[in-house]
Amino acid sequence: MSLEPDARRRSEGAPGELSGSLRDLAGVDRVIHEPARLMIVSILYAAESADFLFLLRETGLTKGNLSAHLVRLEEAGHVAIEKSFRGKVPRTVCRLTEGGRAAFRDYRDRLKRAVDSMPE
Q1: CA distance 77 to 116
Q2: Is 50 exposed, middle or buried (0-12, 13-18, 19+ CB in 10 A)?
Q3: What is the pLDDT of residues 63-94, one digit of tens each?
Q4: Distance CA 55, CA 42 (A)
Q5: pLDDT, mean of residues 7-31
Q6: Buried b (16+ CB within 10 A) or exposed e, 16-46
Q7: What total number of domains does the chain contain?
Q8: 61-89 burial, b if ≥16 CB within 10 A, otherwise e?
Q9: For the chain, how long is the longest CA-to-CA vector?
Q10: What domain range includes position 24?
Q11: Mean pLDDT of 7-18
Q12: Cα four-point dihedral sign 85, 86, 89, 95
């Protein structure tokens, strides 16, 4: 079975076209890319801040799992965590740092470029 020249070009892609999209995928922030952390960062990107209980409800994660992911995001400099008390009740509020917002925008842009450059 032989391919017509146009069909062959579409299946092979232009030189560097696919490798460029793969480079975009290879360069995504691995901390954000993990599904649970991506969900957390997406929520925080849309909101100025969110408390732990809101994130717990929205993500469906367990307390321990959410806490571990928030610590990882904080260590990467993507999330700021503020702990306080409302009366005697502890309150944890999370927000994206400026660096976290920039990292998420970069993540989103890289993913979009990679997907948009894939042959149909």
Answers
A1: 29
A2: buried
A3: 999 999 999 999 999 999 999 999 999 999 99
A4: 11
A5: 64
A6: eeeeebeebeeebbebbeeeebbbbbbbbee
A7: 1
A8: beeeebbebbebbeebebbbeeeeeeeee
A9: 75
A10: 16-117
A11: 47
A12: negative
As given in the structure block, the two tokens for residue 11 are: 């299946």
DSSP annotation of 83 reads E
Q: Is it the case that residue 20 has pLDDT exceeding 80?
A: no
Model-level pTM greater than 0.85?
no
The pLDDT assigned to 120 comes to 77
CA-nearest of 55, 28, 61, 24 to 42 is 55
At 73, which CATH number?
Answer: 1.10.10.10
Q: Is residue 5 exposed (0-12), middle (13-18) or buried (19+ Cβ within 10 Å)?
A: exposed
